[in-house]
Amino acid sequence: MTQDVGAAIRSEREWLGLPPAMLAAQLGVTEQDMAALENGDLDPTDEQITALVELLGLSSPDRLRGAPVPAAPDLRLVCTRRSGPLTHEDIYHVLRFAELLSSRAAHRLTP
Predict the structure, then answer these.
(1) Class (C level, CATH) for 2-65
(2) 99: which residues sit within 8 A by CB, 6+ positions away?
(3) Model's pTM, two decimal places?
(4) What is the dihedral of CA 52, 53, 57, 63, to 10 degrees?
(5) For the chain, percent of residues with pLDDT exceeding 90
(6) I want to staple 67 with a disulfide (CB 3.0 to 4.6 A). Which of 24, 39, 62, 79 is the partner?
(7) Is the four-CA dihedral 15, 88, 62, 35 of positive or negative sign?
(8) Dihedral angle, C-alpha 10, 12, 16, 19, nearest 10 °
(9) Residue 98: its pLDDT value, please?
(10) CA angle at 52 for the pair 105 and 26, rounded to the nearest 5°
(11) Measured between alpha carbons, how far is 4 from 7 in angstroms, rounded to an integer?
(12) pLDDT for the residue 89
């Protein structure tokens, strides 16, 4: 499971275009520890999971454990009713971007 979580951390970091050093600094770990987390050689703490969810703009910790990108039914409908068919990858990017925006808005509203 650790490798799956590590792969998810790397995948989400890369999706955002963040260099490992930048995420490591925001998380408060060394670059070596960041590499170990992404490689599955080091288990993230609960505090690190919470921070990663916020830093990566995820909707929940379950997203680092393989849960699919959540989407409102109307957004999925928009993605499937365009004039041309969207690929699964295109739909993923639309839903992931919506998740990122929703997460950022939720963090701003939290006192």
Answers:
(1) mainly alpha
(2) 57, 58, 59, 63, 69, 70, 71
(3) 0.77
(4) 120
(5) 51
(6) 62
(7) negative
(8) -20
(9) 84
(10) 95
(11) 5
(12) 82
Q: Are 57 and 100 in contact (CB under 8 A)?
A: yes
DSSP state at residue 41: S
Question: pLDDT tens across 2-48, in order?
Answer: 679 999 999 999 999 999 999 999 999 999 999 999 999 999 999 99
Give tens-digit pLDDT for 36-93.
Answer: 999 999 999 999 999 999 999 998 999 998 888 887 666 656 666 556 677 778 778 8
**Residue ranges of domains in the chain:** 2-65, 73-109
Tokens of 47: 């505090």
Candidates 71, 64, 61; CA nearest to 98 is 71
Q: How far is CA 100 from its chain centroid?
A: 8
Q: Which H/E stretch holds residue 102? A: helix 88-109
In 3D space, the residue among 74, 49, 43, 85 whose CA is nearest the CA of residue 64 turns out to be: 49
Who has greater pLDDT, 23 or 109?
23
Taking 3-state DSSP, the helix, strand and coil percentages for the chain, each rounded to the nearest 5, stand at 70, 0, 30
